[in-house]
Specification:
The complex is a heterodimer. Chain A is α+β, with helices and mostly antiparallel strands. Chain A has helices spanning 2-19, 81-93, 155-166; strands spanning 24-26, 35-37, 102-106, 110-117, 124-130, 135-142, 147-149, 153-154. Classes of the chains: A alpha+beta, B alpha+beta.
């Protein structure tokens, strides 16, 4: 069965290589050896530098430079690269309908996510703060003065459960 | 003379409007509410100077003593400009987020209250001769940073936000 399957794959490869005029090289020395197309080197411009390709900017790009104290022009604590990365990871875990969240840095070295719902006495503010470090804490505030604090977690260990619990 | 109604270190008259500059655009949410991050850090609530009867203070000013609306706008732009200059000095480039975005405000009546057992008020704290309109929102009996959290939460629901383009609303304290 395996021999027949390899033969079928090889025929398919030969057809592909022929169609694109590609040479082939053996990938193993056995009787059932398969052939893979030989990849041609890509012409790289002499002035190419990998680091010259900027990452795609996102909500957190500006905050990457906040890794020194005083980033607010006053006396804010530094926000670590670890906190920025964990904030990105948390954002990626959010369902699409929650991604219109307000995001802002805090002078306590955190990145805050905030959602507001309701009106008047029914207003609710839901907050998730990431940082300092990998720490993730959530609170829900009610216009009536009541508040609920959720247990501290991390993006890796408990963020999905926390998001499900909050929303 | 409006200054006749103000007493140093005492709550401002109930009909007066207290305000504070917001100098980051991400501290005003997309729906025009105040971000919880705007009230964090020692810069937002600092320990009271020795000898004061309160424990923590949030710096601001009184509208009627700050001159007219254009003067208030100039003050906000200067604060943002100074913060931006410090950012440039430390980072070598400008921050895209630091700017004069607006003000938060409430009346003396609204701010003189008790929040979960903690008395609070806007008190007149002139910084003469440079800042005669200066006023602090203060908390009494807050011995730790964590004890200010309920106050911050309360402010999120009770301060009004006026964006830069609508500063004329300060004349009615945003109401």
């Amino acid at each position: 069965m395996a021999k027949r399957e390899n033969l079928r794959i090889r025929k398919s490869q030969m057809k592909y290589m022929s169609a694109f005029n590609l040479p082939s090289v053996p990938t193993s020395t056995g009787s059932d050896r398969l052939f893979a197309p030989q990849l041609q080197p890509i012409a790289i411009p002499k002035n190419y530098r990998p680091s010259s390709v900027p990452p795609v900017p996102d909500e957190f790009t500006e905050y990457e430079s906040y890794n020194v104290a005083g980033w607010d022009g006053f006396d804010a604590q530094a926000i670590s690269g670890e906190t920025i990365q964990e904030s990105r990871n948390l954002f990626l875990l959010l369902p699409r309908e929650l991604r219109s969240v307000d995001i802002a840095p805090g002078a306590d070295g955190t990145i805050g996510f905030e959602w507001r719902t309701g009106s008047g006495d029914q207003r609710i503010v839901t907050i998730i703060d990431v940082g300092p470090g990998r720490r993730v804490v959530a609170r829900r505030l009610f216009a009536t003065g009541k508040s609920v604090q959720y247990p501290e977690t991390t993006v890796r260990t408990g963020a999905i459960a926390l998001i499900r619990q909050l929303f | 003379m409006p200054s006749a109604t103000f007493q140093v270190d005492q709550p401002i008259p109930s009909d007066q409007c207290w305000f504070r500059f917001i100098v980051r655009d991400d501290y005003i949410n997309k729906d025009g509410t105040l971000s919880h991050q705007a009230l964090k850090g020692s810069g937002a609530f600092s320990a009271a100077p020795p000898g004061k009867p309160w424990d923590h203070e949030l710096s601001g000013a009184i509208v009627s003593l700050a001159g007219n609306i254009p003067n208030i706008q100039i003050g906000g732009e200067k604060m943002a400009s100074d913060a931006q200059a410090r950012f440039v000095a430390s980072h070598g480039k400008a921050s895209s987020k630091i700017c004069f975005a607006g003000v938060i405000c409430a009346s003396g009546r609204e701010l003189e209250t008790v929040i979960q057992g903690t008395p609070v008020a806007a008190v007149y704290t002139p910084d003469l001769p440079t800042d005669p309109a200066h006023s602090d929102f203060v908390t009494y009996g807050t011995t730790t940073g964590a004890s200010i959290d309920p106050i911050r939460d309360w402010l999120l629901f009770n301060l009004r936000i006026i964006r830069l383009g609508q500063l004329a609303q300060l004349a009615s304290c945003g109401s």
